[in-house]
Write a structure and sequence with these properties.
Helix content: under 10%
Largest sheet: 5 strands, antiparallel
Distance between the termini: 70 Å
Strand content: 35-45%
Number of helices: 2
């Protein structure tokens, strides 16, 4: 097999992945795939600009040429040999001067640090910019979830030890008080009288009726009902001839519901039942005694009365593909690419949870259910 002749630039061979060619002139070290030509000079348009046949270093992403008059900084024209533009403001040009947003600083200045376009003065010489936050080894305050170089972990504005504490939404708690977060609080899942509803922690000992979560509120099941969709969970007082349709509570003599969509066409022969979805955490521990699995919706096909779904079972290695059919109107809408908790009862499949993608949710599910099985068996 004959090899293809090499590409050429003038009298020189051109390797397109590492070199550029402009009007017969070869520029090494800059790929033709990302370069532009300024007459016979190749340049990187991300970091440089070509004006009147000359290449200049960009000091701003919005830097533009001003016709044949030079470069523009805001509304002013300037000569880059004499002045430099920092986000629309002009300063005297110098090899030691650097832009930081609209400010300027010198490389030889002590106690100055540019962090994400903001100039910080009077900082420690050992300060550094990590993820847009200025860190100093002399200061224990922090705003990030990690401080890789200083070796300390952050929780809100203070450091903490992950060996003894747990961080919940910027609040540090002793691990002896629990290993799971509920909003900014921590709780022990072994205590059945504690219930977490969408980030709000409740002590159930003060309730003498059966309650369940509705978003971050508690529902008195004797005279209240929770209507929920993937976006909202709303609490209603129960009324006769009313049913949920997503997060709406409708009068069946005025409306009908199909796949969480209301229609102004009452259907008296319909059962009006709809299977609602709940956050995964609110299904625990009641779900531990059922046959469940995590299934990701890969595709959906709509039939006359059924929705046919291809599921990829997350926790199965061999042949994870599963085909299920749901009643179209009485089943909640499921999104492609999202993972749900499913229940299997004989050969009937039913989605239980709203979609989720948090490793912590799956971890808590297995942790709580494993403890419940060990205690019961």
């Amino acid at each position: 097999m004959e090899s293809s002749p090499p590409l050429r630039c003038g009298n020189l061979s051109l390797i397109s992945s590492g070199n550029s060619c402009c009007n017969g002139t070869l520029t090494r070290g800059l790929s033709q795939l990302v370069a532009d030509c300024c007459k016979s000079e190749a340049y990187n348009p991300l970091n440089e600009i070509c004006c009147n046949g000359s290449v200049f270093t960009r000091t701003s992403a919005h830097m533009t040429c001003n016709g044949g008059k030079g470069l523009k900084c805001g509304s002013e024209t300037y000569d880059p040999k004499e002045r430099m533009c920092c986000s629309g403001k002009l300063y005297r040009a110098s090899a030691l001067n650097k832009c930081c947003g609209t400010d300027i600083y010198r490389l030889i200045d002590d106690h100055v640090l540019c962090c994400n376009g903001t100039l910080h003065r009077n900082v420690s010489k050992k300060s550094e910019c990590v993820g847009g936050v200025v860190y100093s080894p002399d200061n224990s305050n922090c705003n990030l979830s990690a401080r890789p170089r200083l070796g300390e972990h952050c929780c809100g504005g203070k450091t903490f030890s992950p060996l003894t504490h747990i961080c919940c939404n910027g609040h540090s708690h002793l691990k002896t008080n629990g290993n799971f977060c509920c909003g900014s609080n921590v709780y022990d899942h072994h205590k059945k009288f504690m219930k977490c509803c969408s980030g709000r922690l409740y002590n159930l000992t003060q309730y003498n009726v059966k309650v369940e979560c509705c978003g971050n509120l508690l529902v008195n099941k004797t005279n209240q009902i929770c209507c929920s969709s993937s976006t909202n969970a709303i609490l209603y007082d129960t009324k006769p001839n009313h049913h949920c349709c997503g997060h709406y509570y409708y009068n069946t003599s005025l409306w009908s519901c199909c796949a969480q969509h209301l229609k102004p066409t009452p259907s008296p022969n319909s059962s009006h039942t709809e299977d609602g979805l709940k956050p995964l955490m609110e299904l625990i521990p009641d779900i531990c005694n059922k046959t469940v699995f995590f299934g990701k919706v890969e595709s959906v096909a709509l039939g006359p009365h059924k929705r046919h779904i291809v599921l990829k079972v997350v926790n199965v290695v061999e042949d994870p593909w599963l085909n299920v059919s749901l009643d179209h109107c009485s089943s909640p809408v499921l999104e492609n690419g999202m993972t749900y908790l499913w229940e299997k009862n004989s050969n009937v499949y039913k989605p239980l949870s709203i979609s989720f993608d948090l490793i912590s949710d799956i971890h808590m599910f297995f942790t709580v259910c494993k403890h419940k099985c060990q205690k019961g068996g």
